[in-house]
Amino acid sequence: MNWRRFIRSLTLRLTLIYMALFCGSIFLMLGAMYVGGVWRPLQVVENSIRKASDQFTTTYRLQGRDALLRALQDRATHATGRLPYHVFVAPDGAVISANLADWPTTRGAEWLRYEFGTYATGSEEEHEAVVRDLLLPDGYRLLVGLDTEDLDEREDFIFEALSWGTGVTLLLGALGGLVMTLAVSRRLESINRAARAVIGGDLSGRVELHGSGDDFDQLSATLNEMLERIENLVASISRVSDSIAHELRTPLARLQAELEDLDSASTAPETKVRVIAALAEAGRLQGMFESLLRLARLQDGGGEVFEKVNLSLIVEDAVELYRPLAEEKGQKLAAEVAPDLMLHGARDLLFQMISNVIDNSIKFTPPEGKIEVRAVRESEGIVLSVADNGPGIPAQDKDRVLERFYRVPNARRADGFGLGLSLVAAAAARHGAKLLLEDAAPGLRVIMRFPGR
User: Fold this and answer.
1) Which one, of 209, 74, 198, 386, lies nearest residue 86 by Cα?
2) Which of the chain's termini has less CB crowding within 10 Å, N or C?
3) CA nearest to 345, candidates 302, 281, 299, 398
4) Residue 223: is it exposed, middle or buried by C-beta count within 10 angstroms (0-12/13-18/19+)?
5) Mind listing the pLDDT tens digit for each residue in 373-394?
6) How much is the pTM?
């Protein structure tokens, strides 16, 4: 499984958003339960304690200690609802009256939520209580509280539900996101495979349909219709181009024959010069048509026989073929070729592809220039490169030089039709190779990366 693709997938992001929304809804729901079931009742309890403790303080100030003791006992004896708690402590720490088993020995905050021991029912029990801790005149200390054990249990339940609900949501969301991502990724991968096949020149590829009739099936069906339409259009254009090229080959051959006869029959020097120029142009046209037909066959799938070939020998043969031409121009043609670079390919097509690149380098490299051919095996496959120190190709033209008949403005005076690199690109695509045009600083480096076999 490709974890990097999984982490970056849209499905995972949507799952995380859904999980966040679901967790948010749980927080809101339990928050509302907390406010209504715990916070507001606690406010009521605190108000009741404040009212009672204020009355006790007033009783102590106006009527004295004995009246306060009677009021505390009366509250503890005649209580209805929540259990009332109190502790009345003398300035020297002696307990005057209490119905709690324990309490904070030192005075801290005025309001406490504390788990106290109580023997209000005859035996010691642990109860949660809200208590107000007051300091009376003359150094007496009075703690007044009410039992809130039910609110404490309710609060514990809400927080436990929140923690468990969040944990389960995250776990189920992660599992659901993984399952959905895998399912969606498989469907998208079938679309990607078809798209990559089309990019590689195979217009016959189609997206697999699952027959479910869901959104992906409808998208796949639409893409298949689009691909079929494109395939038909490209095929019709190729047929028209082939027909034109084939139809023009015959009259062009006749024209060349007539010009050759005229050249043989003519004795006038001026006529001979014109005939020779016309023959040269006819030859250029013939070469252009042959290149177009070759390119059309490549893009249609060609009729080449693919077999296991030694690319090292093919590269060495191409270098030896063009070395005399390079030496004639005063150029140095060097080669670094690893032995026995075996791959599955068409021998003649590979030779033409390499020859076209070397021929381009010789054509545009100045005298005394250098051309380096390199073929090695790397971890990802075989890498073939041809580098020169010529003028190179401007960055804005690198995407267009692979188009038919496109020529860089500063190279239009050189011989050629603008089909050489188009043929190289088509041949590389037929072999599944990746073609790269890089700046050699100065010059151009053409790189062909063949996949590992």
Assistant:
1) 74
2) N
3) 302
4) middle
5) 999 998 888 999 999 888 878 7
6) 0.48
